Amino acid sequence: MARKTKAAGAAAAPQVDATYSIGDLAEACGISVDTLRVWERRSGRPEPVRLPAGHRRYTSSHVRWLRRVATALAAGHRAGAAVAASEEQLEQMIASAAAAQVPAEGLDPFFDAVKTYRESAILERLWDGWRRLGPDGLLEHVLDPLLVRAGRAWADGDLDVRHEHFLSDAVEHFLRAARASVEVRKDGRLIVLTTLPGEMHGLGIQMAAIVAARTGWRPRVLGVNTPLDETVRAAGETRADAVGISISLHTGGVESDRLLAGLRERLAPEVRLIAGGSGARGVRRGPRGIAYATTLADLRRILREA
Fold first, then answer.
1. What does R_g of the chain's alpha carbons equal in angstroms?
2. Dmax of the chain from CA atoms?
3. Which of 141, 151, 251, 293 is the most exposed place for a label (fewest CB within 10 A)?
């Protein structure tokens, strides 16, 4: 009789939302399948739900937790510590990633528009800020904090991937049009702007291109996910004075430091290497020979002093 009760319990249905395969989980969290498997093998987390047929699945709770782990890694914390951390410890780890926020009421209309898929409302507010605050004010006091808060909302599960993609597309639409309206000096020094391999977030380089142009530089944007050798070739072919790398909150960490160090070794010594973005800052110390722009104001200062 006891065996019958135990068997019935073992056959109980798993959690209703246990619908994510490990591939789905990796895509939703921006963490590779191989990394997830290493963490599970070493620390037992994330622990999958076993379906009656034996398949391993993950829940929305796994997604929320892993997004917060990813945020802690981008702030410079070690994977072992972040994966093993309690909820309270994890919150303390990622507190630094929320430092650049503006009062919530100033950004709420953007998020209302995102959740109702009103691109025109987002663009209207951005162009209004461009006119009222000027390019620098809009980028530093509205757009940069907006993207930081969006990243935090993604990590907390308040925004889903579809919302983040919708916001990113609207902001990219705006930034490309805004870049076209900024005059570029023909005799300015040249900076190549791109991201590291595996980095698919390109808003940072679009913002950096506007800052560079307004500081008297000639930006050349390569786009995202550029192999290191291709970045080096582009710098040589354009005779660039500097290379700027944008690192998002999703990818910043020890691996991005390794790639930056490799890029620094490959670039000519006279080419300045600048790293910026929410994933480039944090508690860790980066490789030598790289200028870190923790804010757009920092980037402007570095370019003026170069």
1. 22
2. 87
3. 141
Tokens standing for residue 83: 């994966």
- Please give the domain boundaries of the chain with CATH numbers for all domains: 2-95 (1.10.1660.10), 104-178 (1.10.1240.10), 184-305 (3.40.50.280)
How many C-beta atoms lie closer than 10 Å to residue 36's C-beta?
21
Question: What are the strands of the beta sheet with 291-293, ordered from one edge?
Answer: 218-223, 190-195, 242-246, 272-276, 291-293
Tell me the per-residue pLDDT of 175-214, one tens digit each, with 9 for 90 and over: 999 999 999 999 999 999 999 998 888 999 999 999 999 9
Kindly state the DSSP code that residue 283 receives in the 8-state scheme: S
User: Is pTM, for the whole model, over 0.90?
Assistant: no
Collapse the DSSP code of 193 into the 3-class scheme (helix H, G, I; strand E, B; otherwise coil) and give the result: strand
Residues 297/233, Cβ–Cβ less than 8 Å? no
**What number of other Cβ atoms are within 10 A of residue 9's Cβ?**
8
Determine the average pLDDT of the residues in 7-34.
68
Distance of alpha carbon 96 from alpha carbon 108, whole angstroms: 21
Q: Count Cβ neighbours within 10 Å for each residue of 167-191 and write b for 16 or more, e otherwise.
A: bbebbeebbeebbeeeeeeeebbbb
pLDDT of residue 5: 41
Helix (H, G, I), strand (E, B), or coil: what is residue 292? strand
Q: Is the pLDDT of residue 51 over 80?
A: yes
Residue written as tokens 């699945």?
A: 57
> Which one-letter amino acid corresponds to residue 222?
L
